[in-house]
């Protein structure tokens, strides 16, 4: 290779790196938005076909996920005409790229514009708990994020199960598995056994759990577990993410996972955590179509 070719190659690599960096830091996390659909079929699904829209990990804060961005997500989600909309937590912005914080009392009225014939439900994520300092000192709720969502007509399920009579399913929500910091370690407030004890008949169960790490403990009785938290690793190349906030690594990083008789769908979410970058994990509205 002569000197001219070497310089051209070096310039090409540098330019490609700059373009990729600009895309990952400014275009994919702040501009792009897709609808990612998964179809899950189960022989034991006794309810009518169900369309679930999942929104996870908003991490609201300018300039990446401001209120106008959230309004865009709300409009596109409503246009999908889902049967139920589920919010999987982490509303709080937790990356250093956030130049302007969006408070929960400003976000919740925008989320209240979500519309689904069987309702809008939520669980909290770890950052929603970590940002609530009084709750951290107590080591328990009430949590102000949950209070504000409830005040705006969005039901928050904290280790609770409710029967949705029209589709004939149980909807359950676990409290966060990393909610409380104690002595440099996290403690969960989730109660899977207590939540399952509230289910009183054989109707299918859909479980919301912010972190997917609970999935190996999920009983076969649960038809579908829905999680967020990982953001698909935020950087994902050829179906693999170098960093995933899960003790299972890439096992539950993103998408539909079936293990034995159990199904899990992990949403890539909307916002960013730690670093304001996304590459190969476009912010998404996740849609799951459940049927027999």
Descriptive key words:
292 residues; Purple Acid Phosphatase, chain A, domain 2
Structure explained in plain terms:
With 292 residues, the protein is α/β, with parallel strands linked by helices. The protein has a single domain (32-291), classed as Purple Acid Phosphatase, chain A, domain 2, CATH 3.60.21. The chain has 7 helices and 18 strands. The strands form 5 sheets. The chain has a 6-stranded mixed β-sheet with strand order 1-18-2-4-7-8, with helices on one face. A 6-stranded mixed β-sheet has the order 9-10-13-14-16-15. Strand 11 and strand 12 (185-187) form a beta hairpin. Helix 2 (67-79) packs parallel to helix 3. The radius of gyration is 20 Å and the shape is globular. The N and C termini lie far apart (61 Å).
């Amino acid at each position: 290779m002569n000197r001219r070719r070497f310089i051209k190659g070096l310039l090409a690599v540098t330019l490609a790196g700059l373009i990729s960096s600009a895309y990952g830091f400014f275009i994919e996390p702040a501009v792009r938005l897709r609808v990612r659909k998964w179809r899950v079929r189960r022989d034991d699904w006794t309810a009518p076909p169900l369309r679930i829209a999942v929104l996870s990990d908003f991490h609201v804060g300018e300039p990446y996920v401001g209120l106008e961005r959230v309004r865009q997500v709300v409009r596109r989600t409503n246009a999908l005409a889902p049967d139920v909309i589920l919010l999987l937590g982490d509303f709080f912005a937790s990356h250093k790229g956030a130049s302007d914080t969006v408070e929960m009392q400003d976000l919740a009225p925008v989320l209240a514009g979500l519309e689904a014939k069987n309702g809008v439900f939520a669980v909290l994520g770890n950052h929603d708990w970590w940002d609530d300092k009084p709750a951290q000192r107590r080591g328990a709720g009430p949590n102000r994020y949950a209070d504000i969502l409830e005040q705006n007509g969005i039901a928050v399920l904290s280790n609770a199960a409710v029967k949705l009579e029209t589709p004939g399913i149980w909807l359950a929500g676990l409290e966060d598995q990393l909610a409380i910091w104690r002595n440099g370690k996290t403690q969960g407030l989730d109660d899977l056994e207590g939540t399952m004890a509230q289910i009183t008949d054989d109707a299918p169960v859909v479980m919301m759990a912010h972190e997917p790490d609970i999935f190996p403990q999920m009983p076969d009785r649960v038809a579908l577990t829905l999680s967020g938290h990982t953001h698909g690793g935020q950087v994902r190349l050829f179906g693999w993410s170098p960093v995933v906030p899960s003790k299972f690594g890439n096992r539950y990083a993103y998408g539909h996972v079936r293990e034995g008789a159990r199904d899990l769908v992990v949403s890539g979410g909307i916002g960013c955590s730690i670093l304001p970058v996304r590459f190969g994990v476009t912010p998404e509205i996740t849609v799951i179509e459940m049927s027999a």
